[in-house]
Amino acid sequence: MRYYLKLAWRNIFRNRRRTFLTGLIIGIGLAAMIFVDAYVVGMKDTMISSATSSFLGHAQIHREGFQDSQDADLTIARADQVVERLGEDPAVESFSRRALSYGTISAPADIASVVVYGIEPENEKALSKVDESMVRGSYLEADQEDGALIGEELAERLEAEVGDRIVITVSQAGSGELSQTLFRVQGIFRMHIQEIDEATAFVPLSAAQSMLGIEQGIHEIAVRFDRTRYATEQGEQFAEEYSRFGNVAETWPQLVPQIKYVLDMTNISIAITVILVFAMIVFGIINTMFMALYERTFEFGVLRAVGTRPSRLRNLIVFEAGSLALYAAALGIILGAGVTLISSLTGLDLTGVEFAGTTFTSRIYPVFSLRQFTLYPVLVFGFTCLVSLYPAGHAARMSVAGALQRAL
Amino acid sequence: MSEQHDIVLTKGVKKDYRRDSVVVHAVQGIDLSIKKGEFTAIVGPSGSGKTTFLNVISGLDTPTDGEVWLNGEHISTMSGNELSDFRRDNIGFIFQAYNLIPVLNVEENVEYVMLLQGVSAEERHRRVSEILEEVGLGGFNDRFPKAISGGQQQRVAIARAMVTRPALVLADEPTANLDSKTSESLLDMMRELNRNTGMTFVFSTHDQRVIDKARRVVVLEDGVNVRDEVKE
To answer: Rg of the Cα trace of chain B?
Structure first.
């Protein structure tokens, strides 16, 4: 076995140029897989981060039925207990309570439908990016009961500026009567998320509670975990723990399923890329092995004549293919790591681009992972060895007399 | 049984090829017996069937008809691994050229068959050094084929063919690619080895120098044995 490994390794460097070119083709394929994978992982992370860190959070808790009906009466049951539990949960980095309702916002110039969020200004800072998105005016402060934040596009439509008066009208809990409250535009934001920039208003939580007539009630608790992956890895555990008292806890894959679908689709597209690359490798290897086989027909004839069993000749060719794959994998790893590393210096700027209902809020940077440098090279190696069984079998079945005659 | 006293014994051996739907009768019923220690040349013009006959008696090819015994074994019925192992243990091959594996050095080329036989590394090294001395290539162990001349390559091939002391050494036109001086010296050496070791040598050739050195000449024409001459 060791002898044939040595022989195989020496054989692949008999024609250095061809080995290098074949190795390069396979290596480029592997490098492409590493590069694409790193960017897809980066894109996934950015997508999840864009979707969750802007306003959504990694998880949310609502009263059962609230998400479908948006009924102001459906406030979170035993909210104090839930909040206390969240405060003690080591997996929870931060959380913020919210009240929300559909309503209208009117200014002298126009009137628009909006979603009104009552937020806790300080807690919200740690959870969402509303405070970082201010383009004019200032962020809410806890003691400013009549302050409101509106999106830049909404402000344009209403022709409202910082300091202007606006009236928010909502339907009160219980009676359903309309309630109108006067606010002043405290600040104008741009979050690069169309539905928020066009049709959302943020007011202090206490003002929203009063406006909706829900006393200390809240409709939503947005949660941020200490690790983004906690939602996908232990999301079920979280959901189970907080889905009690008639409340429902959901993590982002349930809250924004379209992202989950896109990520699943991305996995399929990676699989297709991998299959295409492997197809390229298959033809590269088969072509090279058959070229080598025809060139060395006489030599194989000699090996068989002096007593080499067909199975050993087959092994030799598989070992040669395996050696070639190792060489190619080394080239591919160096190329893939190099190209990905260089491109990671600048990243890919898709800021503001909306994809599958999510707007990218930061550059996409490739993310290295262990599988790129283990799974893919191992697949290349294994697949190459597997594919080489075809030319190896051909060589093993070759007529010895025919092989000796052909080259002469 | 007479077969057991012969190194090679063929009875009515025929070999047909199909080439572009035309059947070529390469060997048309050859009966031949080669005794131990003979130094025999099978001669004839191109297309006379000598290489085909050599292939058949060495188990590299199967006869269309007839039977072949080699060293007392009926090889016409062997196949696959059995035949590979039989060749490994009983026959040494010397081809016209490109005998050696280019990526193996002289020692590795010579020891290859012993490696297949499972001979220990120490024993392999001892026997390789010995045979290389015998063929005049002592100290060439680490050289690669491309670093030695054509004549030296043929000597290495002879060393590889003989190192396991096989019952039969088959040489298919071994001097075809060599100049006359090298050919002479190589033939003298093989004859010397034949005398010293008692190993049986069979050549296929149309080289007059080989024919002159042979002690027995079998002439083939159109796949038939037309003359069998033993020199005094």
So the answer is: 17
Domain carrying residue A269? 2-51+260-407
Contact with chain A for residue B127, Cβ under 8 A: no
Residue ending a domain, among A159, A183, A216, is: A216
Instruction: Please report the number of interchain residue pairs, chain A to chain B, with beta-carbon separation below 8 angstroms.
Output: 66
Do residues A51 and A259 lie in contact, with contact meaning Cβ atoms separated by under 8 Å? yes
Q: How far apart are the first and last CA of chain B?
A: 27
Distance CA(A150)–CA(B52), nearest Å, equals: 95
The amino acid that residue B84 corresponds to is S
B81 contact A CB<8A: yes
Any A CB within 8 A of B93 CB: yes
User: Looking at residue A152, which CATH number applies to its domain?
Assistant: 2.40.70
Whole-prediction pTM: 0.74
Whether B103 and A14 lie within 8 Å, measured CB to CB: yes
Confidence of residue B5 (pLDDT cuts 50, 70, 90): low
- A356 confidence band (pLDDT: 50, 70, 90): low
Task: Write out chain A residues lying below 8 Å of B160, CB-based.
Answer: 306
From chain B, pick out residues whose CB is under 8 angstroms from the CB of A10: 103-104
pLDDT by residue (tens digit) across A398-408?
A: 888 888 875 43
Closest partner residue to A308 (CB to CB) among B84, B98, B104 is: B84
Where a domain ends, among A216, A241, A270? A216
| Residue whose structure tokens are 């909706």 | A212
Mind listing the pLDDT tens digit for each residue in B34-85? 999 999 999 998 888 988 999 999 999 989 999 999 988 898 888 788 999 9
Q: Measure the CA angle with vertex B40, ends B38 and B43; round to 5°.
A: 170
Residue A333 has pLDDT above 70, yes or no: yes
B88 and chain A: CB distance < 8 Å anywhere? Answer: yes
* ipTM, 2 dp: 0.90
Q: Does A63 touch chain B (CB under 8 A)?
A: no
Stretch 23-52 of chain B: residues touching chain A, C-beta under 8 Å = 51-52
Position A225 pLDDT exceeds 50: yes
Closest CA to B168 of B118, B203, B116, B205: B203
For chain A, how many structural domains are there in total?
Answer: 2
pLDDT in tens, A140-151: 987 778 899 999
